[in-house]
Amino acid sequence: MIKIRQIKIEVCEDQEKMLELKICKLLRINKSMLTGYQIIKLSIDARNKNHIMYIYDVIVSLVKEGSVSIKFNDLITPYSRNEYLTTKAHNASIQPYIIGTGPAGLFAAYAFVEAGLKPILIERGEEIDKRVKTVESFWEHSILNPNSNVQFGEGGAGTFSDGKLNTLTKDTDGAHQKVLETFVLFGAPKEILYSYKPHIGTDILRNVVKNMREYIIAKGGTFRYNTCLTDIKCNNKTITEIELNNSEWVKCECLVLAIGHSARDTFLMLRKHGLEMLPKPFAVGFRIEHLQDAINESQYGLKYKDHLGAASYKLTYQSSNNHGVYSFCMCPGGYVVNASSEEGRLATNGMSNYKRDSKNANSAIIVTVNKDIYGTSLFAGLDFQKNIEEKAYQIGKGKIPVQLLGDYLNNTISTAFKSVKPEIKGQYTFADLNGILPSELNIAFKEAILKFGEKIKGFDTEDAVLSGVESRTSSPIKFIRDAAYCANIKGVYPAGEGSGYSGGITTSAIDGMKVAESIIKNN
């Protein structure tokens, strides 16, 4: 097979026909010699708004390939698939317990059942259908279930997100491709296999999660919902038992901690038993909403803005007071959501459905923080997150505090929306967001927003709507683990976002899968 990179075709043409013609032209072959091709990457070059191009990478198969003379170069090369290798368990007596059913937990369980093991998954929240109803009720009535919400429950925090699957991690061993193919196997759209910025959407992701669960159960796995890990027992630095719901002790020699970045109570409990951790820098900020149509026009121009779907963006800036400021979890055609998981504290997130058809684009604009801001103790970052979430809750009186950008820049409480009407899941109210973050971070945020207005026309419009606080961008804690993914307590394996080694759905799924593979190989 042959790989061809960087095939450029202008948008709005007959894409399939033009792609086939370009392949034949580049390979200098007749159409009859082409038996098929597969798109493995599709991106957009929008630098020239008068000629926006699709850019394809493809794999091509030919009739009697060995007899065809192909001139190889930097863009045309022989192709060999980089396949992720899995193994069967040689010790069938292993009984893995997995804490958490987010992407790390689900993919660890999937790897276990494929190897012939029967994991038990412990989830403090509800199964997906009940969880959705609980979250929607919270958004409407503000009655929080601390164990089943946007952060906790089957599918993890990513279930109420855009379902973005892009990652900057290079796929050197095929693990990334394996994760994407697994998502497709369980119901995700096939385009995620080649899209430059793949996403599933929260609506489709929920079905994918259910399909994975049913498969894992059919292969011998067990799910326990509304069940929380509350304690552990160790002997000679080795896990021996775990406590569930403060009442039930069960024997456990293999514990995968796929707990997510918001399991603060679990962090504290594990530390009491000597599990080694380190504080980790993170970032906090606010969500910003613009009209999606305005973002489309800025990114694609008038000629193409109605042909390429909801546009995204990625922005970065280094402030004069030495803070990195960047867009995070950008949700085209999406919603801002109340993502709180603790009483008296308020956090936001963003989500989109597969069609990305809301009238607004939203993104978190976040500012990096480190020990100079939050302190040097192990849980200082966690305490900092709690503090700003409490301030957000207080100034919004339990509702999401919102403010027009122009009023935020001028420290004035807004009184009415203008061109941008918020698309928010959960109750909200006007307040002054300047009272949430330390002044140093507000200064960096404001400086960055004005600079972003130079990159995307209208980004700094005074009508844009801010909401906050965006505090759960990543874990403030990183577990220490060895090359076999094991913590300093034998039999304990931190995985996913809560471990501090991944961020987002894809890298968490990869991490969970690799943790399971390591357990399978080394036991």
Mind sketching the topology for me?
Layout: E1 2-10, H1 15-27, E2 34-45, E3 53-62, E4 76-78, E5 97-99, H2 103-114, E6 120-122, H3 128-141, H4 175-185, H5 202-218, E7 222-224, E8 229-234, E9 239-244, E10 248-251, E11 255-257, H6 264-272, E12 277-279, E13 282-291, H7 292-304, E14 316-318, E15 324-331, E16 335-338, E17 348-351, E18 360-369, H8 371-374, H9 380-395, E19 400-404, H10 405-409, E20 424-425, E21 428-430, H11 439-455, E22 465-470, E23 477-479, E24 492-494, H12 505-522
Parallel strand pairs: 5-6, 5-11, 6-7, 11-24, 16-20, 19-21
Antiparallel strand pairs: 1-3, 1-4, 2-3, 8-9, 9-10, 12-23, 13-18, 13-22, 14-15, 15-18, 16-17, 19-22
Helix pairs in contact: 2-5, 2-12, 4-12
Instruction: Give the averaged pLDDT, no decimals.
Output: 94
Q: For the report, how would you describe the main beta sheet?
A: 7 strands, mixed
- What is the domain tally? 3
- How many DSSP helices? 12
Q: Can you identify the CATH superfamily of the largest domain?
A: FAD/NAD(P)-binding domain
CATH class of the largest domain: Alpha Beta
User: What would you call the quaternary organization?
Assistant: single chain
Describe the structure.
It is a single chain. This protein folds into three domains: about 80 residues, Alpha-Beta Plaits (2-Layer Sandwich), CATH 3.30.70.2700; about 220 residues, 3-Layer(bba) Sandwich (FAD/NAD(P)-binding domain), CATH 3.50.50; about 190 residues, no CATH class. The strands form six sheets. Strands 14-15-18-13-22-19-21 form a seven-stranded mixed beta sheet. Strands 7-6-5-11-24 form a five-stranded parallel beta sheet, with helices on one face. It has a four-stranded antiparallel beta sheet with strand order 2-3-1-4, covered by helices on one side. β14 and β15 form a beta hairpin. It contains twelve helices and 24 strands. It is α/β, with parallel strands linked by helices. The longest helix has 18 residues. α2 runs parallel beside α12 and α4 packs across α12. It is globular, with a radius of gyration of 24 Å.
